[in-house]
Amino acid sequence: MTTFLVTGGTGTLGRLVAERLREGGHEVRVLTRRSRPYAVDLREGGGALDTALDGVDTVVHCATTPRGGDERAATNLVAAARRAGVAHLVYISIVGVDRVPLGYYRSKLAVERLVEQSGLGWTVLRATQFHDLVVQVLRALTRPPVAVLPAHAEDQPVEVAEVADRLAGLAVGAPAGRVADVGGPEVRTFESLTRAYLEATGRRRRVVRVPLAGKTYRAFRAGGHLAPGRAVGTRTFEEYLAERFGGGQGGRRG
């Protein structure tokens, strides 16, 4: 039986990865800032992190935040994993971190480099945006009476459970380096995603597309965050919406 440590193991992805590994009969430790017995702030590290890693074979690193600190957290995790003799470090990243000059993406790319140079056996998987994150963005954009969308923008949302399946499968295998990306089944215009969300939640909004400026917008418009050649996900955005909101005018507001 392999012992796993899943960082961010109560989050959207980490919780599902931990479940998959437990279902496979493995011992799983969940590390977050507040969940005992392995409550650790990775940005601070320390003895509690060493204790959490004692006897661990494989680390699945899902903990992340767009508010900063990912690089410091990864530096501490790698150092502690080396001290503990961890055999395999698995990291989940984002499609386009090397093509889109967004601060959060640059941080994720820097963490990839730390993992690759860690001296540990490593695996890095990149995925497109999860369905629920797209919904969070659309909820904010459609709050006013007029939904202002970036023109010429597309996305490729993927089901988080499918990414969890892939990540857990990689974790139980041998270190594989940078593996093929995981993308959702469809590349969709942002307008079509917005209209699907409005229909599912029973909302009526005027939709206006506005061209934006800047390097980040140009990179998104060019599809730097997409993986059309890796559209391996199967669950569509509409299927996700139907389950979450009940489908159409009678659905929950969200």
From TrEMBL:
Organism listed in the record: Streptomyces olivaceus
Protein name, entry field: NAD(P)H-binding protein
Domain NAD(P)-binding: 8-132
Pfam families per record: NAD_binding_10 (PF13460)
InterPro entries in UniProt: Ergot_Alk_Oxidoreductase (IPR051604), NAD(P)-bd_dom (IPR016040), NAD(P)-bd_dom_sf (IPR036291)
